[in-house]
Amino acid sequence: MSKWMQEWSTEAVGPHKLKIAERRVPEIGEFDVLVRTTAVSLNYRDKLILESGMGLALTFPFVPASDMSGVVEAVGKGVTRFKAGDRVISTFAPVWLDGLRPGNGRTPAYDTLGGVHPGVMSEYVAFPEDWFVAAPKRLDAAEASTLPCAGLTAWFALIEKGHLKPGDRVVVQGTGGVALFGLQIAKAVGAEVIVTSSSGEKLEKALALGADHGINRLSEDWVERVYALTGDHGADHILEIAGGAALGQSLKAVAPDGRISVIGVLEGFEVSGPVAPLLLKSPVLQGISVGHRRALEDLVGAVDRLRLKPVIDKRYKFTEFNEALAHLDRGPFGKVVIEF
Amino acid sequence: MSKWMQEWSTEAVGPHKLKIAERRVPEIGEFDVLVRTTAVSLNYRDKLILESGMGLALTFPFVPASDMSGVVEAVGKGVTRFKAGDRVISTFAPVWLDGLRPGNGRTPAYDTLGGVHPGVMSEYVAFPEDWFVAAPKRLDAAEASTLPCAGLTAWFALIEKGHLKPGDRVVVQGTGGVALFGLQIAKAVGAEVIVTSSSGEKLEKALALGADHGINRLSEDWVERVYALTGDHGADHILEIAGGAALGQSLKAVAPDGRISVIGVLEGFEVSGPVAPLLLKSPVLQGISVGHRRALEDLVGAVDRLRLKPVIDKRYKFTEFNEALAHLDRGPFGKVVIEF
Amino acid sequence: MSKWMQEWSTEAVGPHKLKIAERRVPEIGEFDVLVRTTAVSLNYRDKLILESGMGLALTFPFVPASDMSGVVEAVGKGVTRFKAGDRVISTFAPVWLDGLRPGNGRTPAYDTLGGVHPGVMSEYVAFPEDWFVAAPKRLDAAEASTLPCAGLTAWFALIEKGHLKPGDRVVVQGTGGVALFGLQIAKAVGAEVIVTSSSGEKLEKALALGADHGINRLSEDWVERVYALTGDHGADHILEIAGGAALGQSLKAVAPDGRISVIGVLEGFEVSGPVAPLLLKSPVLQGISVGHRRALEDLVGAVDRLRLKPVIDKRYKFTEFNEALAHLDRGPFGKVVIEF
Amino acid sequence: MSKWMQEWSTEAVGPHKLKIAERRVPEIGEFDVLVRTTAVSLNYRDKLILESGMGLALTFPFVPASDMSGVVEAVGKGVTRFKAGDRVISTFAPVWLDGLRPGNGRTPAYDTLGGVHPGVMSEYVAFPEDWFVAAPKRLDAAEASTLPCAGLTAWFALIEKGHLKPGDRVVVQGTGGVALFGLQIAKAVGAEVIVTSSSGEKLEKALALGADHGINRLSEDWVERVYALTGDHGADHILEIAGGAALGQSLKAVAPDGRISVIGVLEGFEVSGPVAPLLLKSPVLQGISVGHRRALEDLVGAVDRLRLKPVIDKRYKFTEFNEALAHLDRGPFGKVVIEF
Predict the structure, then answer these.
(1) Is C100's CB within 8 Å of B30's CB?
(2) Does D266 have pLDDT greater than 70?
């Protein structure tokens, strides 16, 4: 094991500050594992944190990114869940193991990797064993790295909270990382999936991935199309990714007793919508911010048994981190991943 | 049984059109029951329908009001659930017996008494037996008439959907009919109840009814007070009655994994709020519009076994219907009821 | 429409009493529909009722069988859900529309077609419109007739009550009608399915239908095999069809927080099992007796959207009712259906 | 802080081996807290383990008992949840923090204090901070020590799993520690509580504690009495403590869609019952073995806010451990506690 490693970090919030540093491979404590990173998957949030800090108490030099796959190199003497050679993936919010979210009403928990906790754009990380989950057996490193945030968010919304069932009608807004996981997971559970997008080309690709219907948001009234496609039933579950006033459209499109999962970046914007459908159809509206470790383990099991393949728009090299970040602004179809 | 009866009705939407008419007591069909009305409880919605029609397909002459108690006078030959002499209360949305709501995404069901279906401001009504529930044994006629809409809305939000449990912290906004039922039901289940109001006098009365804490919305920052009263935990359940931009405050006050039940009149207004707490605390936000018959039966059982007494602000006579309607505009403390 | 029709009926409980009678096509009431039967699907329970009465208050002449598909011939003037020409299927327990079961603790509801209510082995039936559901569009009459009892039982256990999710491990005991629906529904939802049987030939057919694993109960210890196939995890859901002391094996095979759905004929037998796994793994053990109409509608929607094909072991003619009943004793692979 | 302490321990399984030993106060690791014990509450299971080992991999000298309250004396440098002076109670199954149970199908987790983990009949214990919960503010040390096992078991069955609601009818079998917590918690949530016992004297005391009805199992048919008390509805929830063939009675007494929580000692015995009510009433039958830490925190909050007082039959001194154990055989009314 080399004593030195490379990692991307920055000394201050703001664009254009990132550089590769040479640092010592970290030491591990009694309950830690040392993991050699094999891939990192990016989220738009990584870019927001680098640009604005998002109000988080970051530690500098700050290493960005939260989602990784890797191989265990060494374990502390108190470690029981892993051994050297195990393939693992990280968890996004590492103290949330199962059940209710940590934090309180005044101060919601947002203690994630690549934020309050250190990031993973590093050749090695040393974290408590509790922060990792066994990687799926059937995915390569890049694919596996997409599960902790994008995969789990879609799974947590549709399955853990949404109890999606065969025959349900699901609207997935867009074709980003969470959206395409939503499409794949909803199809896996036997749902009928309607994808909306402003790009005809992306809709074609979504249909090729298994979507039952595509709606071009620019040229069609998507709510009317959902009524038409479902015989006026509406959508049993909507993955609401746009947020803002678009929520009003989702409230119109949702079926009685349906569910709207609000998923989006953590900017200061508002959600708003008319109260009549909220009352008369009584949908559940729930914000979803990733999920707990147990659900990630469920997702890993499902991915293996269903041979589900995450959609990667482009794979970049370790040295191409800036190019990969820039790709996020262009609206990738699925995930953007760095291979180490 | 008299062949003629009196009922309040109107020939057109708009204020000041209501009058008492003399009409024949209706005939009953095979599955109907004839019920002599003993009390009618008013909701603000009754006033809105009389004034604007609320976009509903009303039949004229239109008899207003939806919530009644009465005594069965006669039953059709196919009737099995009731017999003459039984004390009953009406159901608000009579085709919704249990489980999921009727209607679809495009056209939410709003087929209620005193709306699409006939109202109950009549000395006798003849409705299908399925539209009634046995009245609680321990309440008088006026008290019993408050359950179908105000009582059930609070119960459906807190118990049927909310699974409230002992020790939970509940914020009840205001001191109207639904709010005071919310207070009483939440106390019955062992919750800690915080009432907000713009009236110090009403807060005193709410405390006398059992509320643990009162917050004056005008002189205090209620979100900060909720944090203080709960050690920053926040509210496990908020009965959100104000709606509109006030929802943003509720999103701040709610605990992680908490629940906000949006309850309000069916005006065209918007709800809006910041997305960050919606995502990071992942509360369930659900509009509640009354509930199904089985839950009303559960509420009746609970009312009897817990000796819960609905709060009636004032009882009016049959001839004082206009005065009772006018009372609704003054923000009653609990319910306004007409005794027959 | 012919004025006369044929139906199978019996004047008394006991074998060998069934015969075809010529009777008048029934009249319909205000809320009834007249349905021309196109297929009837048999359940083992039909045989038990004919042989023993099962303690039910039957009316003679008794027409057996509960599950049918047909075409609406005429509707009463109060009917709103169907019109002539509609393809429909029956519901097994017609008063149970949604939500909680009817009946009470002392006297559980068992008011089903072909039992307390009339049966369907008749060329025409006239029942309330509430007793029917629109047939799936993609199934023929024989296939559609298998949904009301066998299909719904599996769906109710796995989906409505069990919230089965992708990647879950399901054990299906046997290859009868409910079991094969269980296999197909579990596969549709992305679960991993293990079928147990005492017949190697049937296991081969179950694997061809999509089962992931087959266990021969005669030659293998099925609990040990389930441990081996799941890495000691156990089964997340077991469709327990054998009952009796076999429940003890299921308690051993179930995963922590798993679910055992007990499904079986209504003989007087006992279930029993060791208390230690019941306590330490805390599984939910729930008897399942078919389900409500709303769930049948969900199943119909799922069948259409998933193109799920019920498995029919053999199709008989109307005149071959006795031969079809005899087939039930030989352990059919899937369903036995009479085509009209 | 003294360097030496006293603790009860034994060198081998079997009666009459227990003695008080003088040992060094343990050292604490980075994430541990040192707690001075103030009270220990006994469970019948403590006796079974001392007498038979219950098949567990015990470490000798073995210190018995699992439920304690105490005061934090010192904390490791990585500890964040507690500080010196905090009043705490232990958790029974310390690795189960929230959500699903640990363990797997083959090997259910039973890693509890006073079992696989060390016990608490010691003046000081040094455990990871995760193993403790803040004690309720309104209970003395003896009362607080009764929550981790008996209190949490009743809470987990009725509230966390059972979602008990006002007006529900609950049958509590017996008057032991779990049973009396069940009585008190069910009353706190507004349920109607029926207690069964073989002792008229204990029934009187249960009624004085708030039970609505008492049934003497020796002189009455308790199932018939439950029917009579509930108008044939049956029991919505039964705390089944006897186990064995008694389960058959509970299956008869339960309401449709009701719940039977099986709670009992971990002997090898069987549960058994008739299948007909299991199918036709479709109750949920679930074994309950204590619960997770988050639910214990919920219980502590509820105890404080409801001013719930655990029932202690008798308080013993540290030196009277053998007398306290002997008391367990005589069927205490509530809990037996050792005060330090």
Answers:
(1) no
(2) no
